[in-house]
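[Backbone geometry]
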Amino acid sequence: MEMNHLAPVFLTGNHRLVSSIAVCLLRAGHPVTICSTDAKRIEERIHLHYKDMKHEGYEIDPYYALQIISELRDDIKAELAIIVTYEDVNAKRNLIQQVEQRSSSDTIIALNTESISLRTLQEGGDNPDRIVGINWTEPAHTTFFMELIANHTVNEKYIDQIFYLAKDHWQKDPYIVRGEIGIRSRLVAALAREAFYLVQNGYATVEDIDRACRNDAGYYMPFCGYCRYMDLMGTYAYGMVMKELNPDLSRNTTPPLFFNDIIASGGKGMENGEGLYQYSPEDVKKWDFLFRKFSYQIKKTMELYPFNYKKNSTLLGDISISD
C-alpha cells in the first residue's frame, strides 16, 4: 500500500515536539490521533501554534481531523505511527511493542533517536523492516529539517514513502542516513564538546560561545550550510586552519564538571528556569514567544535562498548577476 498525505497518522509522546509535529501533519491533510499523558499541554500548544499561523497570514483549516487521547486504545488505525520520546532505550522499545500489538502489520513505525542505534530499537520487533528513525527540530511545522535513518534491515519502500511525504507534503528538505544513528546529533555534540571545553578551561564564557555561534555560523548557515560556505570563502584556507588547529581540539569523552553540576541539580533549562542561564517565568514566556516568531521569519528568508538554487530557481525567479 502506498501512503499518501491523507493517510491517518498516530502520534505518541509527551515531548513538546509532539504539538508542532501534529500541526505539520494536519496542515498536510493527515487525520492525526495523538496519545499523550500530558494531553492538556499538548492541546494548548497546538492552539498556540494555530494562533501564530493565523497571525502570520497562513491559511489554516479547522483541525477537526485531530483527536487527542490520554491512553492507548486496543486498535490503532494508522498507516504511520510516530513515536517521540527522550533518549531512553527502554521507553522507546516499550512504545514500539505497544504500537505493534495494537496496529496492523502494515503500519510503519518511525521514532526519533539521537544516540541509540536503530538496530537496538529494532531488536525484538515483530516487523523490524518497518521500524525507521525520524528526527525533527522544533517547531516542526516551520522548519525544513528532517533526518531519516534507515539501516540494512529497513525495507527501502517504506523509507521512500516517508521521504516523499516529507518533501512533497510536509514542507521538509529531508535527507536519508544509511546507517544506525543520524548525523545531526554528532555535529551538535562535537560543537558542544569544544564549547564546553573552552568554558571549563576559562577560555570563554557561555555568552562568548553564544555570540561566536550566533554572529558567525548563525549568519551564513541558513544561507548555504557549512561546506558550501567553506567553498565560498576559500576551501584551501580552511584546510590550513584545520591542519594546525585540529590536534588541539577537545577529545573529552564525558561532559565537563560545570555541566554535570547543572544536570545533577535538576536543571532543565527554560522548563524550570535553571540551565546554562537563569530564567524567570517572565523570561521563559518572552523567549518562547520570540522563538516562535523568529521561526516564521527565518523560514521566509530561507525560502528566498533554497539549498540548490539551480534546481529550485522558480522560488527565486530569474537570477540576474551583474558586477
Q: What stands out?
A: Confidence is low (pLDDT under 50) at residues 313-323.
